[in-house]
Design goal:
Length: 308
């Protein structure tokens, strides 16, 4: 593994919400350039149409940062084809973590406050901050991307690839939901040229939600301790896996109900009322996922009006 790293240092003005220094340009693939151009064009179309100057400012700031994040993710993606750049990719992930936390600070301290008069925007900004914070904790705290340099190359490679996938999904969803506040008809699947990926993710989500519902129904009918332990494991497995493919607005609801169910089971309380609430919540989620446009051919009678 290479020992020379492209570490980046910053002089951060505390009065500015975000860092402004740039990582040196990295050659992009044709697809990556197309995505960047499409996204920039969409931002240039949507933002000037925002009549409220404060909402226009915060939207422009957040979307501009997302563009920079995608630049760095593209660099990490290209590095994945060259094993001697794994340490450089870890360095870039650390920079991304710092900047993403700066962005959530900006959202929490300024953007959400200015958006209070716009309920839809306020909800989306709150979801973006929650989602980014959730994934950063997962990558840098629970899954310990930091401190992996002493591990084998395949493990380091796998952790970087997984972190790249989580952050890509996270920033794409953040960008899409913010743009759709001001342009509800935006076709999210074509914006990032990832229709096939979104189809795969939605199919995985349907399969895992269906499996989880079967386990919860089993627990409703059988309160055997082994069954309850299996349900707890499945609930946590979904939280740490396929939940990332849900919309941010559903993450908090899932985690809240899941915690109540698990707490009841672990404390030998009667979990059946909570299991009933949980299964109803999962059924609603499953119905919403089936209505995604990318699944129109798979569930033609479920409705095709909802789009991420």
């Amino acid at each position: 593994m290479a020992t020379s790293l492209a570490y980046v240092t910053y002089d951060h003005d505390p009065q500015l919400p975000l860092l402004t220094d740039e990582i040196p340009a990295d050659p992009q693939t044709k697809l990556q350039r197309e995505v960047q151009v499409n996204l920039q064009n969409e931002i240039d179309t949507v933002v000037p149409e925002i009549t409220n100057p404060e909402l226009r400012e915060i939207s422009q700031t957040i979307l501009s940062e997302m563009l920079r994040f995608f630049d760095w993710l593209a660099r990490i993606e290209n590095n994945l084809h060259k094993l001697d750049t794994l340490l450089e990719s870890l360095s870039l992930l650390e920079v991304l973590e710092f900047e993403a936390r700066s962005l959530t600070d900006y959202i929490d301290t300024r953007a959400i406050r200015l958006a209070k008069g716009n309920e839809r925007l306020h909800e989306v900004l709150d979801g973006i901050s929650y989602g980014i914070t959730h994934d950063l904790r997962r990558i840098f705290e629970r899954e310990l991307v930091r401190g992996v340099t002493e591990q084998s190359i395949p493990i380091v490679y796998g952790k970087i690839m997984h972190a790249h996938g989580l952050l890509t999904n996270c920033f794409q969803q953040s960008t899409i939901t913010l743009l759709q506040v001001f342009k509800p008809g935006l076709d999210a699947s074509t914006l990032f040229n990832d229709v096939e990926l979104r189809l795969q993710q939605s199919l995985i989500l349907c399969k895992d939600l269906s499996s989880l519902m079967r386990f919860v129904r089993l627990a409703q009918a059988n309160d055997d301790p082994d069954v309850m332990r299996s349900v707890t494991a499945r609930i946590l497995e979904f939280r740490d896996g396929s939940m990332q493919y849900l919309m941010y607005k559903d993450w908090r609801g899932y985690e809240s109900l899941a915690l109540e169910v698990i707490t009841a089971i672990e404390n030998n309380l009667d979990p059946k009322p909570l299991l009933h609430r949980f299964i109803c919540f999962l059924e609603v989620l499953y119905g919403h996922v089936k209505m995604r446009a990318v699944l129109a051919d798979k569930f033609p009678y479920s409705g095709m009006d909802e789009e991420e």
